[in-house]
Amino acid sequence: MPIITTRCVVLQTYSYSDTSKILRLMTRERGPRSAIARGALRPRSRFGGLIEPFAEGHATLYVREHRDLDTLSGFELIRERQGLGSDLTRFAGASVLCELVMRLAPEHRDDSLFDTLVDGLDALLETPDDAVDAAVLGQLWALVAVLGFAPHLSRCVGCGRVVPSGEPARFDASSGGLRCESCPGHGEPVSAAELETLRRLVASRTSRAAFDGVQRRLLIDFIRYHLAEGVRIRSLEFLARGGR
Ligand SMILES: [Zn+2]
Which fold has domain 88-240? Predict the structure, then answer.
């Protein structure tokens, strides 16, 4: 039974029996893994308080080949990130990041995905209160892109024409991006200013624009169409309600 030590982020935990916890982890070396932490719920467990969602550390795992469940034998904490739980919008954003990684990460090492997750959680933890909405949307768009689902924001998905800045358009989530005003078809109307904000969020993970819910809806619709595929992502519904 090989033993590995790997840097990882705790994506989700749940109780197993009266005393143990099951963890969903995103590891740097091996992609997503599930592990059991025996005795983690006992009062004096060596894991006490360490293995909570969003925490990052070096996990030592007993890996049994062809088994889905590893055994956690040690966890050396790098960063706990419990502060994410103190604000509902930060918490909702971090939960969506983790849930998307849990459902969509490939079953092998993926450094850019791991780094995008870690950078996203840190950004949501550290960003000032007045920039939380932009940070949540920017970090989620970054994760969507690194998972291979970047939206098309320069050319119209219908006719292929470049949609210049200053021109309004429609955002057709089901077709994967912008649809110009002269093309028939569906899509939510976006003003030139909203389109500018969306492009900035996707390109640079930030924006100074004030948000009125439009940007949040565009992101959530896009994730529903392209990443959720009929699966209900619980944390996304929470974010859709405003994270409040
Ligand atoms: Zn067009």
Answer: de novo design (two linked rop proteins) (1.20.1440)
Domain spans, the chain: 3-80, 88-240
Q: How far is the CA of 161 from the centre of ligand 1 (A)?
A: 6
Residue 101 has pLDDT above 80, yes or no: yes
CA 197 – ligand 1 centroid, Å: 20
The H-or-E segment that residue 146 falls in is helix 132-146
Q: Per residue in 48-63, pLDDT tens? A: 889 999 999 999 999 9
> Looking at the domain that runs over 3-80, which CATH code has it been given?
2.40.50.140
Element (H, E) at 98: helix 88-104
Strands (DSSP E) contained in the chain are 3-16, 20-27, 31-37, 56-62, 69-79, 169-172, 177-179, 188-190
Could you tell me the distance, in angstroms and rounded to a whole number, from the CA of residue 227 to the centre of ligand 1? 24
**239: pLDDT confidence band, cut at 50, 70 and 90?**
confident
